[in-house]
Amino acid sequence: MEALALRAEHPEATVLAGGTDIMVFVEGGALELKEVLNIWPCDELRTIEITEGGARIGALATWADVRHHEQLPDSLRECAQTVGADQIQNRGTVGGNIVNASPAGDSLPLWLALDASFELGSVRGRRMVRAEDFWVEYRSTALEKDELLLAVHIDGDPDMQTVYRKVGTRMAQAISKVVFGGAIKTDNGIVTQARLALGSVAPIPVRLKHVEEALLGKPIDPSAADKVNEDIAPIDDIRSTEQYRRSVARRIIRSWLERKARES
Questions:
Q1: What angle do CA 144, 130, 156 make, to 5 degrees?
Q2: DSSP H or E segment with residue 163
Q3: CB-based contact 92:63 (threshold 8 Å)
Q4: pLDDT digit string (tens) for 48-57?
Q5: Which residue, among 140, 89, 131, 92, has the nearest Cα to 110 in the 3D structure?
Q6: What is the rounded distance in angstroms from the CA atom of residue 264 to the CA atom of residue 248?
Q7: Can you give the pTM of this predicted structure?
Q8: Are 188 and 209 spatial neighbours (Cβ–Cβ below 8 Å)?
Q9: Cα–Cα distances in Å, from 44 out to 58, 59, 152, 184, 210?
Q10: Is residue 177 within 8 Å of 169, Cβ to Cβ?
């Protein structure tokens, strides 16, 4: 792929896909573009493939593509609906949201809940990195300087029940104060798998290991949500307070668990 060769030749260049984040930084004076690698014309990175074991979503698939793809998980399509207005959804890309690595990135906790893997490529070859290992610190990822994100891979376990919830100042077109992705699987009423994650509550999106441990091996217990404070480290900022984020995080998790408990 020509883009990988160009990336190898220009490792310091800013990679431009949809540009919905980068152009905001440029207009605000936070980013100066010196070298740009525009990958928007790379149509081979735009495809969404449904496989027997799940799906492969190209890094340049837009949120409008995801929103209207009926074979993708409902939780992922709901996530796509929260990413700005139609203009942003038509231009913003799945890969851009991931690589931008904002703690408030709309999709990031959901990739953790879906146990997604990211396909990274360079002229040296391709490798897979689990979402859990991709965001290493604030706005920093496991991408090497000569690599591009090519696609996202998710499994298609029909027994895994997933959820997405974003809390912002408005119902839409708002940066998240708390964003939640969850996945749970039961067998005869007993939780056998649980993956829960939050964004906007730490420097990177985080799995809620203490909540998950409290759920496994027993009937769904909504009180497991009380463990969330052991997994997150929110701060006070311009959008919200630490106390509010802790309260909302616990409530949205508990509400989801209560609903799943009634259904099981």
A1: 140
A2: strand 161-168
A3: yes
A4: 999 888 999 9
A5: 131
A6: 24
A7: 0.94
A8: no
A9: 8, 9, 14, 33, 40
A10: yes
